[in-house]
Amino acid sequence: MVKMADIYIRGGWVLTLDSNRRIIKKGAVAISDGLIIDVGKREELDPSYKSFSDIVIEAERDIVMPGLVNTHVHLAQGLIRHCADYLPLIKWLKNRVWPLQGNYKPEEALASAKLVVAEMLKTGTTAFLETGLVGRYGPDNIIEFLHESGIRAAVARHVMDLKGYALEENVLHEGLVEPGDTSFKDTLRLYHKYNGLSNRIWIWFGPRTPGAVSLELYRKISETARELNTGITMHLAEVREDVEYTMKSFGKKPVEFAHWLGLTGRNVVLVHVVWVDDEEIMLLSKTGTTVSHNPSSNMKLASGAARISDMLKAGVNVALGTDGGPSNNTYDLMREMKHAALLQPVRTLNAEAIRAEQVVEMATINGARALMIDHLVGSIEKGKRADIIILDYWVPHIHPLVNPISHLAYAASGNDVKHSIIDGKLVVYDRKLLTIDEEKIIEEAEKAAWEVYNRAGICKEPDTVWPIL
User: Fold this and answer.
1) What are 241-298's pLDDT values in tens digits?
2) Transmembrane segments in this chain: where (predicted)?
3) What's the pLDDT tens digit per position in 345-373?
4) Number of CB atoms found within 10 A of residue 215's CB
5) Pairwise CA distance, residues 287 & 290, whole Å
6) What is the pTM of this model?
7) What residues form DSSP beta bridges with 56?
8) Please, what sign has the CA dihedral across residues 167, 168, 170, 174?
9) Distance between CA 395 and CA 357 in Å, rounded?
10) CA–CA gap between residue 150 and residue 239 (Å, rounded)
11) Domains of the chain
């Protein structure tokens, strides 16, 4: 029977990530009205769609898979991705990152967000979780740009009423300080204005790290998020100082502290979660709380190696995040898969500590579950929204292709992405952005970065011991 499709993908390997985790050789996918309407073998689907679709993408030498979901992104840090090498977390924040972000103007924060989104779209991310915008960034402009770009996003708005980090008081840069009432009410305003927009934009609560939020405000955030059926994301147990703070101040380990305040559950994404013990891991599993694993950031800042293999064994939903520009230097989630795959064997001295399949799940279906949108995206199945990426495997570093899962985890990078489809619409085709102007974005970011560095009084020259002539 002849059928019509908006887009018909004639793939080489189709990784469905469905409940059976089917891998279809010589597979095909049909898309109509933003939905996946058919998945199967090319020989079975070709008669119905090959000659009767608006767009036919020949992908016989490609890997077709669900779009990647980045569960920890700092949009405001795109402009400052090189600002703080060789520093541990708290010095990194106090001396470089916070002073720069505390000097942003709205147009500069927007330029940063555009730069980050352009990079994510071109490297296979189709949905992401922003960890926390503040008022000085002009969150409305950023959210409206996200909608226009075509990407899918859960956007957290920072909420705070203290100025500390762990046991250090009054360390947050004044340019980032906001009263609790102001930041909380503005999150509600953004929620009522944008939440659910085009079924691609959601507004979450982004409480700052323990030390910057009072117990009363944490509880208020927890209660309100559940009333509104929205999410919460927060950094937790990233460094040893976080454990020292919750133990000394409250007699509770970090995950116990979060649970005590209602900051665990299906709607919560806790970020990093490096310094935890067996009991805390079981609590994460029992409550259905997601952990966003950011291996590059943890390695670069010498924060430690999270117990991801133990969490997966315990049934914790673990997803992947890139973190921000200064702690990673890239927003390429495909690269993050390799770091996640390699870090656990190093941590455990066990080559079987984690499998490539688990890492690919972390970057796709687990990420969708973290954002509470796994009923919409995260796998290639009939009836789901079409968030799909297509990678070129006809390249030396992914060839010969015997096991596409292994190559994704250990060999591929975001530069291998040829096409990206979000909600059934092409946003990247033949490695070119279709919804935003890449050249203009880069030019605006270059100008904005110099202005931020100059205003903050921080040298933008390369931090290198080599002579620059």
Assistant:
1) 999 999 999 999 999 999 999 999 999 999 999 999 999 999 999 999 999 999 999 9
2) none
3) 999 999 999 999 999 999 999 999 999 99
4) 13
5) 9
6) 0.98
7) 8
8) negative
9) 22
10) 35
11) 1-456 (3.20.20.140)
